[in-house]
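Lecture 7 notes. Example A: sequence first, then its structure tokens.
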Amino acid sequence: MHKGSCLCGDVTFVVTAPPEGASACHCGQCRKQSGHVWASAYVARAELSISGPVSWYAASDIAKRGFCPKCGSFLFWAAHAEDTISFALGALEAPTGLRLEKHIFVKDKGDYYDIADGVPQTD
């Protein structure tokens, strides 16, 4: 089980299943919303319990992004057609015991940094 929260603590969440697909997303939307790279993992929606007010932003025709309306922490990403939900790894209480499995959307990464950690990358 993992517990997490936003910066101000108004939104908390509990993950009751082992997280899958720990990744760092370099897409333009994640960079703009998080300020750099967004690290997340996912579970079935039924395995994530959220407490507190979450504002959802329809980021595209296929997905929405959830954030705290008070402090602005970007916490969740959910595709409309999937039964999973991604959550911010940075919002979890330590220790997480998790490791990044991949970097995704690296073709869209910012030009101000390099990825040199040896973790697999996909365009």
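Example B, a different protein, same format:
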Amino acid sequence: MIRGIRGATTVSENKAEDIHQATKHLLIDVAEKNDILPEDIVSVLISVTPDLTAAFPAKGMRLIDGWTYVPVMCTTEIPVPNALEKCIRVMVTAQTDLKQKDVTHIYHREAKQLRPDLVK
């Protein structure tokens, strides 16, 4: 089965290193909590809020051992008034035997407020 696995995190500043590291740690957590290997991943979509312009978050994904050939696309979130700032969101599409209700979606830092119903 192919499933979508959501995740989000925030950074405190619009700095390249912060964006790269936050993305890296988020994706490692998504993979570990869902027992996903790079070979299981179909693609990764990463979005950032309009206030994050210092770097492409995909570079953070490329810092993970074994993720060199994982297809990735970056985009900007819709600038909704009063939305969470400095936020990085991911959608990992992967092959897994997990049932949809058993997928662990990952929310770090201030992004936990986005989906408190899914935070474990």
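Note on Example B: The longest helix spans residues 16-33. The two ends are 23 Å apart (CA to CA).
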